[in-house]
Here is the input.
Amino acid sequence: MTTSTRRAPWADVIGPAEWRLHTAAGYGRRAEPGRRPALLVVDVTYEFTGDGTGDTSLPGVLDRFPNACGDAARDALPRIRALIEHARGVGIPVCYSKMTDDRGPWSQKNRRAPELVAAPAWVSGIHADLAPRDGELVVTKASASALSGTPLLDELRRHEVDTVIVTGCATGGCVRATVLDAFGAGLTALVPHEAVFDRTPVPHAVSLFDLDMRYANVIDCAEAAGYLDACAAGERFACAEWSPDSPDHGWAP
Here is the structure.
């Protein structure tokens, strides 16, 4: 897996002074991940990715896919796929979520919900590039979190999972909600920032910053792969820490 940038994904949005206020309050400490992880792929369906034809950028793709995230989804797909293949290669469980066809409570917050309900069934299906294998859990959810109202948490507990690597979309929506529920359930959450996506960059960056400060370790895909390898070898793993005082606002020296 290609080593990614070490610059904090929120460095262009959250300045060092504001960042230091959070760290001075104690936030941003690295949680120690456990040795029994699972990889979660949240809502990477055609509804959010589009089908790759025609105009794939925003806002053009929204004419055909009202919930699509444009080029951010296209860029994240190969990174999520690489993590899925890595997890499978070392025997780490992979679990998926997708939305209910009727949109549940989203119909109260999205003006285009009737279009989503009327869309062909394949639109709510998981993108073929990330297709689940036989035996991999796929849960259908009516709410934002993949752990709310689904059998996923019970399945994770059955496998004695202590850490979840959360990928997918949208960073500020279903990814964030899943991380918060994982945190509340006593699980350590890791969020590889290149493997989650949102419609626009500022909400994406701010959501990552807030998650890293409060509820999760935001990492990169190279670090996620290193963690999976450590788990497969039965070794402990410590996530690197972001620092506003590093030369490029990246990893602490």
About this structure: Residues 71-89 form the longest helix (19 residues). The chain has one domain: 36-232. The helical segments are 16-24, 46-49, 71-89, 113-118, 152-158, 171-184, 201-214, 221-232.
